[in-house]
C-alpha cells in the first residue's frame, strides 16, 4: 500500500460522432474532460483519425445492432462510460440507451432551438433554413437528449449575427467557432456538478 488516498474516479466520457469531429477534438484537448471512448457509425470519418491521434479507443458501430440488438451497452459498460456527449452524431439514439444514461447524454445543435431543429435538420440544412427564413441571429444550443430529435431541456445557448452577406458556409464557420469555444467548457461544468 502506498498510503496515498485515492481521489474520486474521473468521470469517463464517450463522444458519439459521425463526421469530421472538430468538436470532439476540442473536447479531447480541453484537458478538463476525461474522454475514454469515441463511438462512430461512419467508417473513414475524420473523428476516427482524431481518436487514433489522441490514443483514445474508438468503437465503430453498425446499424442493426445499435437499433435492434444490445445497442452496444456491453461495450459502454466495459469501458465504464458514465456520460455521453453527442458531437455531430447523425443517428437518433434508441430509447434503451437513453434509459441507461438518464440525464447523462447531451447534444449540441447548430441553431437556436426550438427553431430549426428536428428530423432532417443537420449540417448545412440548418444553415440554409436559417438564411432562407431571413433570420438576423443564429447560434448554438447545448441540450439534454430525450427520445425526440433536438428536444430535451436546453442547458446553454450562445448567439451570433446572421449578416445579409452570409452563406450557409460562412454561417457554418461562425457556428463552429461558437461550438468550439463553449462545448468543452459547458461539458466540464456539467461534469463537476
Ligand atoms: C456541429 O455543427 C454540430 O452542431 C452538429 O454537427 C456538427 C459536427 O461538426 N450536430 P464536427 O464533426 O464536430 O466538426
Summed up:
Helix content is 36%, strand content 20%.
Can you put this structure into words, describing what you see?
The protein is built from seven helices and seven strands; from the N terminus they run βαβαβααβαβαββα. With 193 residues, the chain is an alpha/beta fold. Strands 3-2-1-4-5-6-7 form a seven-stranded mixed β-sheet, with helices on one face. It is globular, with a radius of gyration of 17 Å. The two termini are 31 Å apart. It binds 5-O-phosphono-beta-D-ribofuranosylamine. 5-O-phosphono-beta-D-ribofuranosylamine binds next to α1, β5 and α7. The site of 5-O-phosphono-beta-D-ribofuranosylamine has 14 residues, from α1, β5 and α7.
Amino acid at each position: 500500500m502506498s498510503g496515498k488516498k485515492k481521489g474520486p474516479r474521473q468521470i469517463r466520457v464517450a463522444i458519439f460522432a459521425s463526421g469530421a469531429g472538430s468538436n470532439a477534438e476540442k473536447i479531447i484537448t480541453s484537458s478538463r474532460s476525461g474522454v475514454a471512448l469515441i463511438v462512430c457509425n461512419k467508417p473513414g470519418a475524420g473523428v476516427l483519425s482524431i481518436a487514433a491521434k489522441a490514443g483514445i479507443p474508438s468503437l465503430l458501430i453498425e446499424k442493426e445492432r445499435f437499433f435492434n440488438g444490445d445497442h452496444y451497452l456491453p461495450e459502454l459498460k466495459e469501458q465504464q462510460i458514465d456520460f455521453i456527449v453527442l458531437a455531430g452524431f447523425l443517428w437518433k439514439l434508441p430509447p434503451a440507451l437513453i434509459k441507461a444514461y438518464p440525464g447523462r447524454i447531451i447534444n449540441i445543435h447548430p441553431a437556436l432551438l426550438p427553431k430549426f431543429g428536428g428530423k432532417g435538420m443537420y449540417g448545412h440544412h440548418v444553415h440554409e433554413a436559417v438564411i432562407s427564413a431571413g433570420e438576423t441571429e443564429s447560434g448554438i444550443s447545448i441540450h439534454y437528449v430525450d427520445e425526440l430529435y433536438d428536444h430535451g431541456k436546453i442547458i446553454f445557448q450562445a448567439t451570433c449575427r446572421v449578416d445579409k452577406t452570409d452563406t450557409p458556409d460562412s454561417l457554418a464557420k461562425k457556428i463552429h467557432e461558437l461550438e468550439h469555444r463553449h462545448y468543452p467548457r459547458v461539458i466540464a461544468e456539467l461534469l463537476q456538478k
